[in-house]
TrEMBL record:
Cited InterPro entries: Cbl-indep_Met_Synth_N, Cobalamin-indep_Met_synthase, Met_Synth_C/arc, UROD/MetE-like_sf
GO biological process terms on file: methylation
Name assigned to this protein: 5-methyltetrahydropteroyltriglutamate--homocysteine S-methyltransferase
Record key words, sorted: Amino-acid biosynthesis, Metal-binding, Methionine biosynthesis, Methyltransferase, Repeat, Transferase, Zinc
Organism of derivation: Paramicrobacterium chengjingii
Cobalamin-independent methionine synthase MetE C-terminal/archaeal domain span: 446-768
């Protein structure tokens, strides 16, 4: 069989959760035992088949390998690990029990008996999270799953020739960690040569099944991991792909990259027999900068030009995309038009959002629209721009309409920004603030508090649904929320916490709540994207200048404070986190948008102060996750992100105690940023990562107050008094006791009242014990 050339238009991957989150729901049902494995598989099969049908409907070819077989039940990195047998030994039971394959994958993802699950971390600089495979010196790689083959055959049975897609060997190893008992200094990447034969075997099986092209996703080639140690790593990459390319029985190989500039890896791949290479031309590679040696080698390869932005929701400039694709054709005759990344980062379809203002809808492009755009540019490239003139012009018109529409630029906001100076980002010195705050607040040693949310019960969710659905009046809803607040205040008083919170019952989500209450945002109804496994988020769309028409949180905080003589902490989401968890306008730098958000929060803080709130927390859990992939970009990021937080908080009176809260691990790289925030008190997730962070913070010379979490809220388990006391004592060994706060790792919204109350009781008992010792 002679494999055909690479299709003219394609995408790197398509959302897998289902248009109506069918997969998400089926996963939850299956785990709850309400779906059998067989029923669950039927749902997954139906989703895969509807994806293929839909992609053909949107213009991709039915039988030319242009449809990527990119489905995953939980996570594509997990799939790749399972496919090559990289399964930690603690799961031997599950694997040997020959349970169905998805059952084994779920065990790795969610834990099984005593076997703790694989760790999870962010997939490059996106909001998608992947599982972290564990590799050791003895991990036995072997092609041990027929998932890819099964999906390919399933597709072929209904008349599709699709393109099996799997994370490539280099990326799989670079994203893995050393298994726990591996010798010191062992690097998973050192196993590349052992892993390649498992991929070769897989390729041969796919070839027998009739696959013409296979896509190996190698986005890690783009990251610093490779750039830092380029020579050695790239030599290994080249050797690996030479070997895969040398296999006699294999489909053609398409190696995709994404999330940035392919850099030196392009030369390495060009020197191997792979038939097609993918480039992110939206956020990365500039074709004219490719050196002549590499150019010569690319001439007989297909280049897959990622010119349609796979991770933004904007319709974008199609004319520019076509021009870029045409530039790539100077390098090789065979150019395919594609998305810059998989489309898992965007919602399914703009046309599901019937409630949106029609004008805004014309500016947007979700996964389905992106597929069509790829087709348009592909046709333009093949037959000349005149063949798609209408589509190009329509996109250009929408693009310029977006730049000029009312609300996109708000003169009042811009005038205010133009008057800002360095002064607006500074409070009086920490020492002075500390003095007045001590006097004003008169808190005990080791003050106790929580991070903000109390359990979001079904009752709360139902009340919100009733109100939004028009079944309950605003008055009924407000009374309901007030009762919730009163209960939470009473509970905290009974527990004996020192700084109380109102519990956030009025918030569906810490970002969406602010988006709904600020100008410049729109929220979607069906715009779900996968964060991990069955967890999806619905990021708001930040399309215009941000401003605040009226106070947002003040009423709730004032009410909570009226119920108690203890201080109630106001609770806001910070500018960086709002940006990180939204789809943000691309017509100005993120840093400009951050300033606008900061000003809105600055006003909210002033209003909270005026309402008698003396402690205000501004959450920045996403501070770490927005950090750019490349080290060279860090300084700039830290400057604007920290600057925005300071702009939001710097007008607070010296006696107002500003708290911030951060979560997720690996804070090491942003310690300077944490210091830069200059918050009076910083609470930080640490129990979850065994308190490693407190040493880093102590070593960094950070001298403000700090609350390392001592209760891991990620599981329903209630930690014992001894356990939390140990963590607190551990923290007190490295942090001055009079700067130490006592709190959980994060908010309690995902917990139930029973376990949360029991756990908080133990946390408070630990504080009492440690106070008695000093
Ligand atoms: N205040 C928020 C809460 O308690 C913070 C959540 C977060 O850090 N992700 O839920
Ligand atoms: Zn948190």
């Amino acid at each position: 069989m002679t494999a055909r050339s690479f299709p003219r238009a394609t995408i790197l991957g398509y959302p897998r959760i289902g248009r109506r989150r069918e997969l998400t729901k089926a996963l939850d049902e299956r785990w709850a035992g309400r779906l059998t494995a067989r029923e669950f598989d039927a749902t997954a099969t139906a989703i895969r088949s509807s994806i293929r049908e839909r992609l053909v409907g949107l213009g991709l070819g039915r039988d030319d390998s242009s449809i990527p077989e990119s489905f995953s039940l939980y996570d594509h990195v997990l799939d790749a690990a399972v496919t090559v047998g990289a399964i930690p030994r603690r799961f031997d039971d599950v694997v040997n029990a020959r349970e169905d394959e998805s059952g084994a994958a779920f065990a790795l993802a969610r834990g099984h008996g005593d076997a703790s699950p694989l760790a999870m971390t962010k997939w490059f600089d996106t909001n998608y999270h992947h599982l972290v495979p564990e590799i050791g010196p003895d991990t036995r790689f072997r092609a041990s799953s027929n998932r890819l083959i099964r999906d390919f055959i399933e597709a072929r049975a209904s008349g599709f020739i699709t393109r099996p897609t799997i994370v490539g060997p280099v990326t799989l190893l670079l994203l893995s960690k050393a298994e726990i008992d591996a010798p010191e200094g062992f690097l998973p990447f050192s196993r590349l040569a052992d892993l390649v034969p498992a991929y070769a075997r897989l390729l041969s099986d796919l070839s027998h099944a009739g696959a013409e092209w296979v896509q190996l996703d190698e986005p890690a080639l783009v990251s610093d991991a490779v750039a830092d140690d380029a020579d050695r790593l790239l030599a290994a990459v080249e050797a690996a792909y030479r070997e895969l390319g040398a296999a006699t029985e294999r489909p053609r190989l398409f190696v995709s990259t994404a999330y940035g500039d392919i850099g030196g890896a392009l030369a390495s791949l060009a020197a191997t027999p792979v038939e097609a290479i993918g480039l992110d031309l939206v956020h990365g590679t500039i074709p004219s900068r490719i050196d002549s040696g590499t150019r010569a080698r690319l001439a007989d390869k297909a280049l897959v030009a990622g010119v349609i932005d796979g991770r933004s929701v904007w319709r974008g400039d199609l004319e520019a995309a076509l021009t870029t694709a045409a530039d790539v054709r100077r390098l090789t005759r065979s150019v395919a038009v594609s998305t810059s990344t998989s489309l898992v980062h965007v919602p399914h379809d703009v046309s599901l959002e019937q409630h949106l203002e029609p004008r805004l809808s014309t500016w947007l492009s979700f996964a389905d629209q992106k597929v069509q755009q790829v087709g348009v540019v592909g046709r333009g490239l093949a037959s000349g721009s005149s063949s798609v003139r209408g589509e190009l012009d329509a996109a250009s018109a929408a693009f310029s309409d977006r730049l000029n529409a009312p609300g996109v630029r708000n003169q009042a906001v811009r005038a205010r920004v133009s008057l800002l100076g360095a002064r607006d980002r500074y409070r009086v010195s920490w020492n002075q603030r500390r003095e007045v705050q001590k006097r004003e607040l008169a808190l005990p040693l080791l003050p106790t508090t929580t991070i903000g949310s109390f359990p979001q019960t079904d009752r709360i969710r139902r009340a919100r649904t009733r109100y939004l659905g028009g079944f309950d009046s605003a008055e009924t809803y407000v009374t309901f929320i007030k009762n919730e607040i009163a209960d939470v205040i009473a509970l905290q008083e009974e527990l004996g916490l020192d700084v109380l919170v109102h519990g956030e019952p009025e918030r569906n989500d810490m970002v969406q709540y602010f988006a709904e209450n600020l100008e410049g945002f729109e929220v979607t109804l069906h715009g779900w994207v996968q964060s991990y496994g069955s967890l999806c988020t619905r990021p708001p769309i930040l399309w215009g200048d941000v401003s605040r028409l009226a106070p947002i949180t003040v009423g709730w905080s004032r009410y909570a404070q009226s119920l108690t003589s203890k201080p109630v902490k106001g609770m806001l989401t910070g500018p960086v986190t709002i940006l990180a968890w939204s789809f943000v306008r691309d017509d100005q730098p993120l840093s400009d948008t951050a300033v606008q958000l900061a000003l809105a929060l600055r006003d909210e803080i002033a209003d909270l102060e005026a309402a008698g709130i003396g402690i205000i927390q501004i959450d920045e859990p996403a501070l770490r996750e927005m950090l750019p992939l490349r080290g060279v970009d860090h300084e700039h990021y830290v400057a604007w992100s920290v600057g925005a937080f300071r702009l939001a908080t710097a007008a607070a009176k010296p006696e107002t105690q500003i708290h911030t809260h951060l979560c997720a691990s690996h804070f090491g790289v942003v310690l300077d940023a944490i210091k830069g925030l200059d918050a009076d008190v910083t609470s930080i997730e640490s129990a979850h990562s065994r308190m490693e962070i407190v040493d880093d913070i102590a070593a960094s010379g950070f001298d403000h107050d700090i609350g390392p979490g001592i209760y891991d809220i990620h599981s329903p388990r209630v930690p014992s008094v001894d356990e939390v006391t140990k963590l607190l004592v551990r923290a007190a060994e490295v942090v001055d006791i009079d700067r130490l706060w006592v709190n959980p790792d994060c908010g309690l919204k995902t917990r139930g009242y029973q376990e949360a109350t029991a756990s908080l009781r133990n946390v408070l008992e630990a504080a009492t014990r440690v106070r008695q010792r000093v």
